[in-house]
Amino acid sequence: MTSTELNTYVAFGYFVAGFCYLGAYVSGLLGSTLRKPVLVMFLAVFAAHTGSIALRWVESYQMGIGHAPLSNLYESLVFFAWTIALALVVVRVRYGTDIIVLLGLPLVFVVMAYTFFLDSSIRPLIPALQSNWLVAHVIACFLGYAGFAVSFVAALLLLAARSSTSLKQHLPRIDLLDEIVYRSVLIGLPMLTLGIITGAAWADYAWGSYWSWDPKETWSLITWLVYSAFLHARITRGWSGNRMALLSVLGFAAVLFTYFGVNYLPGLHSYF
Amino acid sequence: MKGPQETTSEPGKRDSVLSQINSFFTSVRTTITLLFLLSAASIVGTIVPQTSSPEQLSGYSSGVYFRIAVILDLYNVYRSWWFVLLLILLSLNLLGCLMRRLPAIPAEWRGGFSKSNFSFAVSHPGDVQETKNRVLSTMNRLMGASARETRENGFAVISWTKHRVYLLGFPFLHTAIIIILLGGLVGLVYGTRGHVLIQEGDAVSAFESSYGQVRSLPFQIAVDKFTLSHYPSGEPKEFRSDVRLLENGKEAVAGSIRVNHPLTFKGISMYQSDYRVTGLREVKLEAQDASGKKSEFILRPKGKMSIPGASYEIELLSLDPGATGRGAGVKIGVTGPGENRTVYLHRKDSGPVQIGDVKLRFLDYTPLYATGLQIGYDPGAILVWIGCGFLIVGFSLILFTNHRQVSVKIRPEKTGSRIEVSGRSKRLRREFREQVEAGLGAQLRENLRRNPGTGNTKNVDD
To answer: Does the beta carbon of B115 lie under 8 angstroms from any beta carbon of chain A?
Structure first.
């Protein structure tokens, strides 16, 4: 089986796992009997996903053009989905919040499903991407994005929980959600910072300038500014609740634009 | 000069203006506002096309929007006066916040304990010494540090501090941003960027800056060869310029410049950025005589040569790099007995051209390239990298260390002793409180764990 075929199964695996989470939630068994089985299922799909990334790496070496599978939109989306799934696993293990997994899984599935429409062939690395900075830059950025994605999901739940008391009964405690909204940004921002720094170092080697105000750079800076404002508002001004959640949603919109939106603006990151 | 009248007539106002300015520069509210303003300004810069002069904004060159764009430098947001002003304000604000916060750090470093995040008290049947031993054994292990004992009103107060290096995270992070912005400013004022196109075999000692001025280099760049190689699948694999850097006509450095592998000499870096086909180096042709014997030969620009096995002379006139479906082609002038004509040879399909007894076929060509090099000189870059290093150190301290303090006061009661615990943690406050409660609870055989969120301890998480 090729990595591309495996990715198709992984995408549907996430879909099925998400469906099972939903079923368990609706039947009220997510907190009891079905809690473990659905988690095992999710972890199995995640393991297959990890395997498919490793397999693609091996395949590229077998083709004689070996490189980390982070070189085009298809590969970066598969990796993005992987980092979100990883963040969901971490949050599930750390905080025991199954509902975050339930809401995060559709996000993972959508990202994986989007790759169906893209060219999945393994291509050799073009000169601009032949750099040791590539792997560090992409991994750091996507780990940051994954942190922000989890914060976003928790922020939506927080907004829902605060808007109606009937919803609140079915959701995790508000202070726990608040904590997840904040702490995932606390992990995400240093990762994004590392991503921007490695990107700047790479740009200095490749384009002769550590910062060129290319739209992708600019939007990653905007994302950085929004989440910096988020942390300052939280730590020193004691913001919490709705305002915090809205800032997290706003920040995630900036993340999505940084990733997808700037492709519609002219710039240097055109190969992504 | 301060006149007595001034001080007496409006001392309050003077104070309030100063304190307002002061609070503007030391307030985090200002920081947050500036961060949002910078975001908004950056968004504008990605929407309005950024050019080096407003004249290039063709199609927008009339009307009120154009005038607004020109006044506000919207075509060059990131170098506009107001964007730079925002960055300067941010630096001053960061400096203000640093100045306000720094003085408190040494006291905290020495173990000063101002506000606690949680506190609780519990009674224990043992006497003071027995209780103290129990507390010491748990807390020494929990804090991974030895205790400091002082006395307060005659009672023992034991305190622990862990990871005070965390306290350096804040100054590292905020100094980092100031250094990076300073580096950017140095680069903006003293740095240069530009581009130069050099044909193979040529040497230059000047380049065009990004503002359109010609800038001279303290050395010459001589390009010997530009190589473009492809993968079997057709994608470009490598762009390489083999260059020699000459000082006073003497070779100082020889090397190659590739994408992602710049060459730096005397602080000036040269980067592979683009290339152009500017002419023809040589053409490989094949001649087939009447007997069917084939021979390959090379034709170079400038100068005539005779076709092997025939009494014709040919010369290279021009190259068509191959925009049409017939691929690359060359125009060749043929002179010979009774002939003086121009023939076109194409790489694909068109077949050989008969000249006298000889069939001439186009096999391949080597273009003459001009390589496009990006030239950069930025004395501010080193500051930026130092700042980035500070950022990484700062974030690492804040993420991987956690300044925690616990102070325990023990005093005798009628039956046993009373323990008053207060604690403080910069991060993971709930977890730290639970850790202390669980540790001491197990040691003192008391259930100190509270239901989260319902405890009467002060619990402001982070």
So the answer is: no
CB contact under 8 A, B35 and A232: yes
pLDDT attached to residue B1: 36
Q: Nearest by CB to A208, from B28, B184, B271: name it.
A: B271
Which tokens is A117 given? 């429409």
3-state secondary structure of A171: coil
B305-306 vs B313-320, strand pairing mode:
antiparallel
Cβ-count burial B45-79 (b if 16+ within 10 Å, e if not) = bbebbbeeebeebeebeeeeebeebeebbbbbbbe
Tell me the chain B residues in contact with residue A65 when contact means C-beta distances shorter than 8 Å. Answer: 231
DSSP state of A261: G
Cα separation, B383 vs B381, in Å, equals: 5
| Contact list, A213 vs chain B (CB under 8 Å) | 45, 50, 78
CB B389 within 8 A of CB B221: no
**Three-class secondary structure of residue A120 per DSSP:** coil
Residues 6+ apart with CB under 8 A from B79: B73, B188
Residues of B in contact with A186 (CB under 8 A): 399
Chain A: give the shortest CA distance to residue B91, in Å.
14
Q: CB neighbours of B147 closer than 8 A, spacing ≥ 6?
A: B136, B139, B140, B158, B159, B160
| A43-82 tens-digit pLDDT | 999 999 999 999 999 998 888 888 888 888 899 899 999 9
Residue B262 sits at the chain A interface (C-beta within 8 Å): yes
Nearest to A236 among B28, B50, B375 (CB): B28
CA R_g for chain A: 19
Distance, CA of A157 to CA of A140 (rounded, Å): 26
- Those residues whose C-beta lies under 8 Å from the C-beta of residue B326, and which sit 6 or more positions away, are B346, B347, B348, B349, B350
Question: Which pTM does this prediction carry?
Answer: 0.83
Q: What is the pLDDT of residues A156-175, one digit of tens each?
A: 999 998 888 888 887 888 88
ipTM of the modeled complex: 0.87
Residue B195 CB partners (closer than 8 Å, separation 6+): B207, B208, B210, B273, B372, B373, B374, B375
A208·B269 Cβ contact <8 A: yes
